[in-house]
Inverse folding.
């Protein structure tokens, strides 16, 4: 399994960081986790066939995690017609809203009948022969989730956006061994995270969704300290093999 960190910024794109977006590659299939920027452009730039995308899913409905979903759905609807991704949104009202947007964008013509746009809630949100994705509620906003991804014998946890590490950090991180934990760093200091991280069973922890203007000094300080797990920060374009 390969993870590409396409966007690692906080709620606003920065000159060297796009908003939250990640691409998982497993056995020739792609899975898009959050689309805070135009992920389809990155797929095209890398020469990745859109037809290989099996899933596009967002942790919560804030624009810095969802804005790219509109163009993705639009192009899959009218141009990449051989593509058949499942598009999953974190509220039952959102599929109809997205379909309405696509209809208005095409002069009143409804989206193609086989375009799969749905909603998910807590629990197993998606599963195929490559992976299982479990949605875990958080307190960041109405209908916000962390994602536990199990694939190829590995476990990966995206926290999504949290209220605070001491309030709604996913319990699974304390109970299950994780090969990688990706935690946001827009809403609280890394100093707030470390006491919580120390209780997890994560082998490696990376920050993403990073607000450098707020936390750069604290992050640099923590990276230079010893930890019982690999610890660091992701950046746009980082590729990891698990």
């Amino acid at each position: 399994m390969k993870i590409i960190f396409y966007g690692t910024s906080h709620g606003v794109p920065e000159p060297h960081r796009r908003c939250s977006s990640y691409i998982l590659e497993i056995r020739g299939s792609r899975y898009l986790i959050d689309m805070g920027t135009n992920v389809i452009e990155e797929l095209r730039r890398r020469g990745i066939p859109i037809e290989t995308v099996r899933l596009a899913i967002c942790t919560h409905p804030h624009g810095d995690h969802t804005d790219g979903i509109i163009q993705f759905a639009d192009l899959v609807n009218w141009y990449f017609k051989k593509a058949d991704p499942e598009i999953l949104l974190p509220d039952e009202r959102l599929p109809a809203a997205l379909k309405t947007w696509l209809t208005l964008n095409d002069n009143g013509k409804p989206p193609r009948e086989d375009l799969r746009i749905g909603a998910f809630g807590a629990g197993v949100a998606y599963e195929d022969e490559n992976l299982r994705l479990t949605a875990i509620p958080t307190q960041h906003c109405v209908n916000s989730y962390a994602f536990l991804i199990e694939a190829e014998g590995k476990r990966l946890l995206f926290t999504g956006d949290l209220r605070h590490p001491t309030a709604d950090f996913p319990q699974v991180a304390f109970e299950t061994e994780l090969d990688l934990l990706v935690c946001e760093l827009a809403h609280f200091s890394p100093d707030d995270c470390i006491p919580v991280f120390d209780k997890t069973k994560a082998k490696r922890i990376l920050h993403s969704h990073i607000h450098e203007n707020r936390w750069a000094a604290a992050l640099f300080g923590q990276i230079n300290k010893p930890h019982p797990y690999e610890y660091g920060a992701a950046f746009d374009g980082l590729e990891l093999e698990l």
